[in-house]
Amino acid sequence: MNQLIIAQVFCLTIVSMYSLPQSLAMADDTESPNVILLMSDDQGWGDVGFNGNAVLQTPHLDAMAAGGVRFDRFYAAAPLCSPTRGSCLTGRYPFRFGILAAHTGGMRVGENTIAEMLKKKGYATGFFGKWHIGWVKPDEVGTRGFYSPPSHHGFDQYFATTSAVPTWNPRVTPADWDSWGGKPGDPWKGGFPYVQDGVEVNENLQGDDSRIIMDRVIPFVQANQAKPFLATVWFHSPHEPVVAGDEYKKLYPKAGSKRQNYYGCITAMDEQIGRLRKKLRELDIEKKTIVLFCSDNGPSDGLTKKGVASAGPFKGHKHTMYEGGVLVPACAEWPGVIAPGTTTNVRCSTVDFLPTIASIVGYSRSKKDTRPIDGIDLMPVIRGESQNNDRSLFFGYRRLHQGIDGKAIISGDWKLLQEAKKNGRTRLYNLANDPFEKKDLSDEMPEQADRLRKKLSELEASCQRSRDGADYRF
């Protein structure tokens, strides 16, 4: 009986800790800002100019970071794409909504997304690019996912793929490709990877994939310039197959072919981000628009090991629980609101997008909606009003059929991780003294490891309650 009471008290405590505040600073609906969420795919912390890469050309992202805020410690909720994408839209850890790895489920309609929230505030909502949290074609059949397109989650319009495509000529398997997806020269996954509002697309699909996506974003922005809008733009670059056009590869004459393609496709994506920023200024709506950018996880395993992609000075890469797997490049711009040249070392995360946007637009949840929200409002951090690094952050990635059950928690300056591999070790690091995770302290400080192990177990138990139905209506 005592254990049951303790569990009930703990559950209420978790809900209290992670629920979005019911009373948020209200915003005038007529002044509600536009929201643009940009995300790259497998772009490492070190694969952008504003984080110190002196070779890779990302002038528009660099300008965006300089004109707003650069997040020096921004975390993806998982070290791979699908779980992180769900966290961006829901403000919740992936273990809550049940997408634990790539192609291992789809977004549940019982989740409340940023798009659904903003629709209630009168926003037009559009999604563009790589969805990867559910199939986008109703007749797709797979053993690890199901049909759950953007239109099921609050988006009025969408132009989307279920998963990865080549970053140049996305309908065709690249000539030198020797992995999953198709044989060189054959149609990529049937040749019609994009779906627009339920219909397969067969026009304007040649050349740079980032440009193909932006060709659909710009008309949406123009059509909705007189009303508030949400544009969620999730690029495929620089996820493999990584291919760049000749004009972008020529920008890196001293690089090998793999780096020419990798750097070239990032520069091509950056060019399209610049095109979007220019359009906002042409329409005179840049001061009414907040633009947020991040990557979905660390850099590709193989490309990192080959010295092409980079997590900067941090240990690890995609699919690992080390900093290099979850620490990503991120910045935000909102002229007239976010002071140029702002930087922060406060640990922020993709789960923070929803509560931040909720606060900005003055959205309050109903009193009946007590589901845990794991993120925080980032505006006090951006304004320098909060330097608090004490909150806990939970990361996870699970594929039990391969023995993979990677988890990590950051609590204050301490990080405990369970390696994402079969029989992976548990390791303890002090990120304040050892940000590059060189010295495992788990044997030297067993009491500290046990403290974090307990907090991790409590968070995981809370997430399992959510995942098993506590947060959904029956």
From TrEMBL:
Cited InterPro entries: Alkaline_phosphatase_core_sf, Sulfatase, Sulfatase_N
Pfam short name (any one): Sulfatase
Any one GO MF annotation of this record: choline-sulfatase activity
This protein's UniProt keywords: Hydrolase, Signal
Enzyme class label: hydrolase
Signal peptide range: 1-27
Family from the record: Belongs to the sulfatase family.
Matches recorded under PANTHER family: ARYLSULFATASE FAMILY MEMBER, ENDO-4-O-SULFATASE
Protein name per the record: Choline-sulfatase
Organism: Stieleria marina
Lineage per the UniProt record: Bacteria, Pseudomonadati, Planctomycetota, Planctomycetia, Pirellulales
Protein encoded by which gene: betC_19
